[in-house]
Automatic annotation (TrEMBL):
<dbReference type="Pfam" id="PF00296">
    <property type="entry name" value="Bac_luciferase"/>
</dbReference>
<dbReference type="InterPro" id="IPR050766">
    <property type="entry name" value="Bact_Lucif_Oxidored"/>
</dbReference>
<dbReference type="GO" id="GO:0016705">
    <property type="term" value="F:oxidoreductase activity, acting on paired donors, with incorporation or reduction of molecular oxygen"/>
</dbReference>
<feature type="domain" description="Luciferase-like">
    <location>
        <begin position="16"/>
        <end position="303"/>
    </location>
</feature>
<dbReference type="InterPro" id="IPR019949">
    <property type="entry name" value="CmoO-like"/>
</dbReference>
<protein>
    <recommendedName>
        <fullName>Luciferase-like domain-containing protein</fullName>
    </recommendedName>
</protein>
<dbReference type="InterPro" id="IPR011251">
    <property type="entry name" value="Luciferase-like_dom"/>
</dbReference>
<comment type="similarity">
    <text>To bacterial alkanal monooxygenase alpha and beta chains.</text>
</comment>
<dbReference type="GO" id="GO:0005829">
    <property type="term" value="C:cytosol"/>
</dbReference>
<dbReference type="InterPro" id="IPR036661">
    <property type="entry name" value="Luciferase-like_sf"/>
</dbReference>
Length: 338
């Protein structure tokens, strides 16, 4: 696809709970980050639904989004995403309809289908792990019908007439194809499934059908990006992310470790190889290194937008990373958000 210059940049925020801090600290940091992101010109600030993870405080996106919207004025705020099978569509229609009514034109509703947690917690959320009960297309149709007011005898108030900007999220071609068939924008989780990115985006574009919401395909990719003044400093603050993901995949999730804690680990060769593979999918380095990496990724994928997630231990390092990236890849002003 032709390269049209730097894509608009956004923020994906998991409200990380760093070792030595509390979930309340993490949530206050999210509010601070949203205000910085708005001033820096980022287009969107999304939060992700996760459960039973001590290092992630964004378990209730609608509640956090309400606070994010209240301390900002132009940036889009939303979910990246709400895991629809964890909820009844009517509840999501009422929650996000209320957000849209309070903050018109600024609310994004990104929908995913994974539970965002382990199987035991998924059962606590859903009470039914039968795959047949996770019918995302049916749930999505019901959700949109509540926003449209087309379900007999049930009115979502607020909700009806207050539909936020709707996105589908995914890490495979299932949601890519569904987003294309419904004519919706699509956000792909490149940050943890980079090997599937090109194939999923191709499926999305080939299956796209114009709709009242969107005339042409519009794809965003999530990217792990960590920027510091030098390549060495960026690698130092990025290393704990590998340890955190290793612990998660080993069934030992915890708070987000510090660089010193990560450096003190004595990993087996297999563990170190796992961490190296995880970090290899990130864009890490000085402003010039990150700029080159993001522009290459955009050109390779044809992404219309890029959403950056920066998981580091120190909140000041996270703010600094977003500042440096915005400085070398001028973010589109939030007031121009679609």
């Amino acid at each position: 696809m032709p390269f049209a210059g730097p894509a608009p940049l956004s923020v994906l925020d998991l409200a990380p709970v760093s070792t030595g801090s509390t979930p309340a600290d993490a949530l206050r940091n999210s509010l601070d980050l949203a205000q910085h992101a708005e001033r820096l010109g980022y287009r969107r600030h999304w939060v992700a639904e996760h459960h039973n993870m001590p290092g992630i405080a964004s378990s209730a996106p609608a509640v956090l989004i309400a606070h994010l919207a209240s301390v900002t004025s132009t940036i889009h705020v939303g979910s990246g995403g709400v895991m629809l099978p964890n909820h009844q569509p009517l509840v999501i229609a009422e929650q996000f309809g209320m957000l849209e009514a309070l903050h018109p034109g600024r609310i994004d509703l990104g929908i995913g289908r994974a539970p965002g947690t382990d199987q035991i917690t998924a059962y606590a959320l859903r009470r039914n792990l039968d795959p047949a009960s996770e019918d995302l297309p049916t749930q999505l149709r019901e959700l949109r019908a509540f926003f449209a007011g087309s379900i007999p005898r049930i009115r979502a108030t607020p909700g009806e007439g207050y539909e936020p900007e709707l996105w589908l999220l995914g890490s495979s071609d299932f949601s890519a194809r569904l987003a294309g068939e419904l004519g919706l924008p699509f956000s792909f989780a490149h940050h943890f499934m980079p090997q599937n990115t090109l194939a999923a985006l191709d499926v999305y574009r080939r299956s796209f059908q114009p709709s009242p919401a969107l005339e042409a395909p519009h794809a965003m990719i999530g990217v792990q990006a960590i920027c510091a003044d030098t390549d060495e400093q960026a690698r130092w603050i990025a290393t704990p992310g590998g340890l955190s993901f290793l612990r998660l995949r080993s069934g030992r999730p915890g708070t987000f470790p510090s660089p010193e804690e990560a450096a003190a680990q004595n990993h087996t060769p297999a563990e170190q190889a796992f961490i190296d593979r995880w970090l290899a999918g990130h864009v890490i380095g000085s402003p010039q290194t990150v700029r080159d990496g993001l522009l290459e990724l955009q050109a390779r994928t044809g992404a219309d937008e890029m959403m950056l997630t920066t998981m580091v231990h120190d909140h000041a390092d996270r703010i600094r990373s977003y500042e440096l990236v915005a400085g070398v890849l001028a973010a589109a002003p939030a007031s121009q958000a679609a």
